[in-house]
Amino acid sequence: MSFIIEIATTDYTTTKSAIEGGADRIELCAALSEGGTTPSFATIKICKENFDVPFFPIVRSRGGDFYYSDEEIEIMLNDISIIKQLGCEGVVAGLLNRDGELPLKKLEKFIEAAYPMEFTFHRAFDRCKDPFKALQQLENLGCQRILTSGQQPTAPEGIKLIKELINEAKNIIIMPGSGVRKENIKQLATDTGAVEFHSSLRNKSISDMNFIHPSFSKTDYENPAVKASEVRELKKALLE
Fold first, then answer.
1. CB 3.0-4.6 Å disulfide test: which of 5, 15, 94, 230 passes with 124?
2. DSSP class of residue 40?
3. pLDDT, tens digit, for every residue of 198-209?
4. Residue 46 is part of which domain span?
5. Torsion of the alpha carbons at 82, 47, 55 and 30, rounded to the nearest 10
6. 153 preceded by cis ω (within 30°)?
7. What CATH number is attached to the domain comprising 21?
8. Residues whose CB is less than 8 angstroms from the CB of residue 156 and which lie 6 or more positions away in sequence, other chains included
9. What DSSP letter does each residue of 170-227 carry, written as one string?
């Protein structure tokens, strides 16, 4: 069976490491600690020029909830347009109404703006009121993929719903994400039937700075990191 591992990265360096480790696809983000926001277009451009894997930047104007103002919607539609111009293969986005339902007309605009790029509906799905209704709606809109932890904090905790969603899905991919690690990825695949998986494998690296100002914490001099070895181990655990 053919599996796909998507790694969430935050910058050029983490993207380089993830690809060296064998990532099949990159979800490029800024502010991953906030669940991800739209990365800089320069970062997308340089990564696209230097690496030959599919890039799915997240389109999210801010952290927090997934109910957006008209101005934020306009910002994200413009982001999608620029990302398409940069030659990316897909985008990752998600919207909700105040009541936890999907704003279908707004989502339709997003998916149309992204075409022919693929559209992944991100973990806003885990905050929606009725996951099975939302699944059907996203299929009807032409969304290619849903990133979900089964409406729980992590995918291993949401494994029951993830399996049910995969069994229900007809023309859309259900991709488990959040807490996906080498210790559980094989079990997730076996128990749910998922073939695509999302992980951030977030780590820290020590700064190369020689001068560390004594007034500030050493943690201020730690940089985001993805270890290529951990990506390889994740893929190996899935294929064993």
1. 94
2. P
3. 999 999 999 999
4. 4-239
5. -70
6. no
7. 3.20.20.380
8. 179, 184, 187, 188
9. SSSEEEEBSS--TTTHHHHHHHH---EEEE---EEEE---S---TTS-GGGGEEEE--
Helix axes 185-192, 159-168, angle to 10 degrees: 40
Q: Rounded distance, CA 230 to CA 240, Å?
A: 15
Which tens digits make up the pLDDT trace of 144-189? 999 999 999 999 999 999 999 999 999 999 999 999 999 999 999 9
Number of domains in the chain: 1
Compute the residue count for the chain.
240
Quote the distance between the C-alpha of residue 202 and its chain's center: 13
Q: Count Cα atoms within 13 angstroms, Cβ side, for 146.
A: 32
- Give the amino acid at 154: T
Digit-coded pLDDT (tens) for 185-226: 999 999 999 999 999 999 999 999 999 999 999 889 999 999
